[in-house]
Amino acid sequence: MVNNEIYKFADNKMKKTIHVLGEEFSTVRTGRASVSILDKVYVDYYGTETPINQVASISAPEPRMLTVQPWDKSIITDIERAILKSNLNLNPSNDGALIRIPIPPLTEEGRKKLVKVVKNMAEKSRVSIRNIRREVNEQLKFSEKEGKISEDDLRRMQAEIQKFTDKYIIEIDEMLKHKEEEIMEV
User: Fold this and answer.
1) What is the pTM of this model?
2) Measured CA distances, 23 to 26, 28, 31, 36, 118 (Å)
């Protein structure tokens, strides 16, 4: 029974790492309008830092345009200020009821910088996957020392954990490749 629990533990933690990487990738601006690029932008809403998507509806009516329509019109300038303060290099325009955010095309230099950023995110995720493998292997070695599993079971289980590791590293590489292509397309 120990091995099933170990496999589930490793698989769940590795899946979470992949999920977090996907969320991080979705916040990287690609030159195309995507509502998720505002996910990490917070607005001061009655003294509480609140994600924009919880105080307004965000849509992408055109490939290079986002619109933000606050549910409470009194915070429209706060939302505009929050977008300006974010490191997204966006210039929102406010007409009193709606904020329009044109998404400028990325320069070649900007694209290369973003590719470096996503490569760094992917590498951190690979390291996280390897750390999970190391943690599980240490648990397995401890179980073997205590006599809960045999040496043969230890080797077999370590090989299985390595398969999980390889599978998720390949998944990270594929996600990175797709994101790089998305960033570099004109």
Assistant:
1) 0.73
2) 5, 9, 17, 9, 12
